[in-house]
Amino acid sequence: xxxxxxxxxxxxxxxxxxxxxxxxxxxxxxxxxxxxxxxxxxxxxxxxxxxxxxxxxxxxxxxxxxxxxxxxxxxxxxxxxxxxxxxxxxxxxxxxxxxxxxxxxxxxxxxxxxxxxxxxxxxxxxxxxxxxxxxxxxxxxxxxxxxxxxxxxxxxxxxxxxxxxxxxxxxxxxxxxxxxxxxxxxxxxxxxxxxxxxxxxxxxxxxxxxxxxxxxxxxxxxxxxxxxxxxxxxxxxxxxxxxxxxxxxxxxxxxxxxxxxxxxxxxxxxxxxxxxxxxxxxxxxxxxxxxxxxxxxxxxxxxxxxxxxxxxxxxxxxxxxxxxxxxxxxxxxxxxxxxxxxxxxxxxxxxxxxxxxxxxxxxxxxxxxxxxxxxxxxxxxxxxxxxxxxxxxxxxxxxxxxxxxxxxxxxxxxxxxxxxxxxxxxxxxxxxxxxxxxxxxxxxxxxxxxxxxxxxxxxxxxxxxxxxxxxxxxxxxxxxxxxxxxxxxxxxxxxxxxxxxxxxxxxxxxxxxxxxx
Length: 517
Prior knowledge:
This protein has helices at 7-14, 45-54, 101-113, 146-150, 181-184, 231-239, 254-259, 289-298, 301-308, 337-346, 367-379, 392-400, 419-425, 446-455, 461-478, and strands at residues 24-30, 59-61, 67-69, 72-79, 82-87, 124-131, 134-139, 192-198, 202-207, 220-227, 245-247, 263-278, 313-315, 353-360, 383-390, 406-411, 481-494. It is an alpha+beta fold. The strands form three sheets. Strands 1, 8, 9, 10, 11, 12, 13, 14, 15, 16 and 17 form an eleven-stranded mixed beta sheet that branches. Strands 4-5-7-6 form a four-stranded antiparallel beta sheet, with helices on one face. It has a two-stranded antiparallel sheet with strand order 2-3. The longest helix is centred in the C-terminal third of the chain and has 18 residues, at 461-478.
């Protein structure tokens, strides 16, 4: 791996933007703010974006899905189970402590204990210190996704997070949906430091003057993130000049942004799948495959994309988007209202039933509108839906309790690989391994589990593709969940904000490299 300018820097240099502008302050409006400053508490897009601001990964994805060296400046294969990472020297945490291999090992061990992240790191047996700036990541067997997974290893300041607080609590503990030392006291190596945070009001960041990446073109000195839940209000704030950058821009508002003279619309094709889960543990009829199939046949994905998403999405019949290993082109959406009614009758539910449904109202593009549309569609097969929509800060605790019969969840593959969807959404729930951590459908199929585990040890790409395609077919036939669409992405920015080089399909822009003219 060669050192030098990263691709974001190169793009900005080519555009004549890098290193020619003065430090700038910026205000960004999102639909929701991060729920925690702990990078291991919540596996979500907001957490990932926060992690890239306050911390740094060993490696990260480029816009074209290549690997870029970050805290690991190079790596080498030692044997079929071991990849050795050489850390940059002289990198300091915000506390002033120097990054060493001990921090990587400590972070790895913490990830293996995190309820949300342990499944990602389940294929790994150890992180072993070779010397102060060299670490081996060791897998349990041949594993094709070591670098993919390393994009989720953001070394934490092990000295800073060790010990206990004044009230005797472990500074390094992971607390889901609760206040902890790690959730309120970040010390990373990232381009920004936390200046001020009031949950649900604003988060203020200031530039890290000692940031290790001297080649970063970023010139933002102070950055304020404010949550604005309503789509139209968020756009209005951009058009009025109250904020400089917004995410997302609802498809309903694209024309407003494009028509304005001093702002621009920036878009990317997305791979986040939007789904509903059918909670078999909570609602007995969902254990019947005919009922689950009926729900799938009753929902018009094409109508949702055309009318609610204004065409800004791709209808889905499976988890894996086109282009991913494991995408099965035979699996398409199956809207057929007559078939849905027939299946309900065959299952003995021609008169229907009543269910509860929850969905966020500020996490995914048009999330609550989509939920309302699905509610109306299910009414056509006599399923009465009691729908509750919640802000994301209140939604995740309810989702984690699987507190409804149908639950909305979107998922972008953490490893840019098809297996990751199943690892979290459809494999049998297992607290020890973290498999099925977000499987509130409580779907369980030993054949699927075995296929995914085998695929994760298969280094032959063609064989692995066929295995993952088979897994998608099993899920399709079982109607394990309700796929809706892959969500495209849109940001709005003032014309002097060079958003294009830093946004990406992963939906966590690298704001440390953001240039404001």
